[in-house]
C-alpha cells in the first residue's frame, strides 16, 4: 500500500512577520474574534503599559476598521519596548494584507507597510562612539 501524503489542516488565521531594529514579531491575525490582543502570552495592557505604544499597535486595525473584529496573537523578541511595539505594528499591517489585499492602499499611505531599516551604527576604532571623536586638546 503506498504511503499517504500528509495533509496539513489549514488553520483559520493569517500570519506575518514584522521587524524594527533588532525586534522581530511573529503575528497571527484571527478573523471573527472579539478584538483581544495577546503579546507573548500576556494581554496588551500588561505587555506595554505606555499609551503611545498601545496606540502604535492598534493603529493599523483602527485604520482599516477591524479594531474589535479580529484577535491578534503576537510573539516578539529582541530590541527594546518601542522597537517591539513598532515590530508588532508592522506585523499586523502585513497580516492585514493576507486577510484582504484591498487594505494595501490605505496601509501604504499611512506608512505601515514600509520596514523602518534604521539600526544603531557600529562603534569604530579610534572613536568613543560611532562618530564621536575624542576631545581635541591643543596643549
Provide a quick synopsis of the model.
The chain is an alpha+beta fold and 139 residues long. It is built from four helices and five strands; from the N terminus they run ββββααβαα.
Residue share in helices? 25-40%
Structural class: alpha+beta
Mean pLDDT: 92
Number of strands: 5
Low-confidence stretches: none
Keywords:
21% strand, 32% helix, 139 residues, 5-stranded mixed sheet, alpha+beta
How does this model look, in words?
Helices cover 32% and strands 21% of the residues. A hairpin with a 2-residue loop joins strand 1 and strand 2. By secondary structure, it is an alpha+beta fold. The longest helix has 19 residues. The radius of gyration is 20 Å and the shape is elongated. Strands 1-2-5-3-4 form a five-stranded mixed beta sheet.
Fold blueprint:
Layout (H helix, E strand, L loop, with lengths): L13 E7 L2 E9 L5 E3 L2 E2 H4 L3 H14 L5 E8 L3 H19 L4 H7 L29
Parallel strand pairs: 3-5
Antiparallel strand pairs: 1-2, 2-5, 3-4
Helix pairs in contact: 2-3
